[in-house]
């Protein structure tokens, strides 16, 4: 099975690198500056579960990757349009896209670009970052990837052969992988947790522990969580009580150093996925007629941050 990974940043570099380590046939589709960096130094992973410097196959043009079976899409949401253009040839030639972006809006965009049958769902849980020296830094021990078909694809019994191949390539790798179908549930569960974490930590520019140590921090985070849960519920994906307990343990844990990657991006002074992670949640809330004032404040805050970014 030929795997194409678009992007060798935190997520693509980590999961793609672990697949290379496990002997899978992986090519990275990269822009020239990252391709040159990797040609010079290899793909470098620094992780509490094992460091690695990997020689990897790299392409800078999608036509070199025609014949791929799956494209693992690991760009930020703000790069989605260029990523779609980059993978167009291999996908039109038959590859199926497995996106690992947070949020949901990219799914509709990918389906419009390539058709329903060319897009499955995926999400990952990892704390990782791409350092300026090109090292992919895994910041704790966890790394989990969930992949699967959407409800309507299961009903049509389509893509079954591809799913079996994916089950095999995700076996015996140095991360946890699970097929979760229908995938909508995992996408919504992850999004409501992340949107809560991202809205709270970016608004307050601090970790969960710092917010929890403030007078009304727990009330603020609890309020944002209630809003994101109300949106998931209205969309038809209410979280289970057990999952909500897990989310509360993450977002309401006193002393926790947790921050969303969105806040790490703000701290680097870079572009952010605000519209994709918070704006889109707010848009859906409004379409359902829900009042979500805390998401409104978070979205406004992130839009002002973006307006102040210097064009590079
Ligand atoms: N980091 C984390 O801990 C987690 C992130 N996520 C989600 O995963 C997604 C990816 O995030 P993350 O890996 O952190 O982001 P990064 O910025 O670290 O990596 C994204 C990479 O995509 C590359 N890229 C973008 N557009 C293209 C293109 N057209 N062609 C080739 N390469 C391209 C970028 O390369 P270039 O250098 O050329 O710009 C960059 O290296 C996001 O949606 C994020 O929310 C999910 C879970 C955890
Ligand atoms: C919440 C977390 C760290 C989980 O993977 C994440 O997805 C992010 O911060 O972007």
Explained architecture:
The chain is of the alpha/beta class and 312 residues long. The protein folds into two domains: 181 residues, 3-Layer(aba) Sandwich (Rossmann fold), CATH 3.40.50; 122 residues, N-(1-d-carboxylethyl)-l-norvaline Dehydrogenase, domain 2. It contains 13 helices and ten strands. The strands form two sheets. The protein has a five-stranded parallel beta sheet with strand order 5-2-1-6-7, with helices on both faces. Strands 3, 4, 8, 9 and 10 form a five-stranded mixed beta sheet that branches. α7 packs parallel to α10. It starts with a strand and ends in a 5-residue tail after the last helix. The model has no long low-confidence stretch (mean pLDDT 97). Ketopantoate binds next to β8 and α7.
The CATH class assignment of the largest domain is Alpha Beta
Give the low-pLDDT segments.
none
Q: Would you count the extended β strands for me?
A: 10
The separation of the N and C termini measures 39 Å
CATH topology of the largest domain: Rossmann fold
Number of domains: 2
Side by side, the strands of the main sheet go 5-2-1-6-7
* Biggest sheet details: 5 strands, parallel
Enzyme class: oxidoreductase
Pathway: Cofactor biosynthesis; (R)-pantothenate biosynthesis; (R)-pantoate from 3-methyl-2-oxobutanoate: step 2/2
Function: Catalyzes the NADPH-dependent reduction of ketopantoate into pantoic acid.
Protein name: 2-dehydropantoate 2-reductase
